Amino acid sequence: MSKFLLVIGGPTASGKTGLAIRLAKHFNTAIVSADSRQLFQEMRIGTARPTAEELAQAPHYLIGSHSISEGYSVGQYEADALRALQLIFAHHDYAVLVGGSGLYINAVCQGLDHFPPVSAGVQEALQAVFESEGLAPLQQELQELDPAYYQEVDRSNPHRLIRALSIIRSSGQPFSSFRKKQKSQRPFTPIYLQLQRPREELYSRIDQRVEQMLEEGLEMEARSLFAHRHHTALQTVGYQELFDYFGGRHDLSTAVELVKRNSRRYAKRQMTWFRRDGHWKLIGPDDWEVALQFISMAAEEGLSIHQPFHKEGQVQALAWDKNGQPSNRGRRFVFKGGSTSVIQQLDKGPAGSLLLHQLSLLTIDEKEAHLLLPADAQGASGWDRQHPGCPPPKYDAPLPEPLPWSHWRRA
């Protein structure tokens, strides 16, 4: 019997925990966390670890399982997560992996990249720069030497900055150049689901979560960890800002606003990471039936999403079948100098409906978005639109061919 890993991703505060628990209960299985901070025992409030009530609803692995005093790498996480999945798959055909750490998710689903050896002297020199001058010089060097990785890395995490720069200094090549290897073979098939919310809604949820953390005792938790603030695990949004408050760099009100701001920035970096992957089926918070439909078609028919960005300007989403052939496709275009997207669905059927749903969520933050259906779907032209209040396009003839790619740009 085939084994399937339901991978739940998305930015912080998007609702991943709730969806993961609901899926675990639906498929009568267990959850493995892919959060690089929730696995530490001492960091309960600031990492928004699932509550005791939530943990009781389904078995969880790698939640509060380690201490911040332990050295813990992504390689160790990969081994621990695969062992947990082996235990789950011994009794179940489905398992759930949930978290916002893209690196941890990729480690489980694809395996880690192999990097050249780094001398201790290089790492020590970078660590000395961080301890004496802070994050700024590390961020600046990485931006200059590897702008691609700079755009997606958690720039507030000194461990990841030092790791990337030590590889760059040792090899003379960008860190990102070592991240294009073949995927590792796994005894399971990942099915990727990413929660998508309008940006303003997400940012509001982030602000509300920060206020809730403070009510639950985040300041006291951070004070209890202040003496350990140099540990890698604590170089984390929600703790660093309060450590600076304890050290007299700013007042509490400023610290809280910085936590909110930096959390929003972190969410934006997470979305950039997941968008780069190009294999996530986007779902909204109320799209339970859509999620189940996609899981069913992925498991039974081999359906998958491929959403590469094309430098010509189009965003093309493809639905692939189990033989690796495109079974359905759609395109999203964005006008030059405007915010109106025109989505064209080229095929019909269940896969086409899922793909159409995918493309519509890509326009969730746009002022206007028009959907163009095949001519035979709704009479001669057929139309719908993503957002109310926008006048629909009017066509009295079959849909025209898309304009040349030079007339469009990527969002």
From TrEMBL:
It catalyses: adenosine(37) in tRNA + dimethylallyl diphosphate = N(6)-dimethylallyladenosine(37) in tRNA + diphosphate. This is tRNA dimethylallyltransferase. Its cofactor is Mg(2+). Residues 380-411 are annotated as: Disordered. It is an enzyme of class 2 (transferase). The keyword tRNA processing applies. It holds the Pfam family IPPT. One of its GO terms (biological process) is tRNA modification. Keywords: ATP-binding, Magnesium, Nucleotide-binding, Transferase, tRNA processing. Belongs to the IPP transferase family. SUPFAM superfamilies: P-loop containing nucleoside triphosphate hydrolases (SSF52540). Transmembrane segments: none annotated. Monomer. Its EC number is 2.5.1.75. Residues 389-403 have a biased composition (Pro residues). Substrate binds at T12, A13, S14, G15, K16, T17. Residues 35-38 are annotated as: Interaction with substrate tRNA. The keyword Oxidoreductase does not apply. GO terms for molecular function: ATP binding; tRNA dimethylallyltransferase activity. The record marks S101 as: Interaction with substrate tRNA. It comes from Phaeodactylibacter luteus. ATP binds at G10, P11, T12, A13, S14, G15, K16, T17.
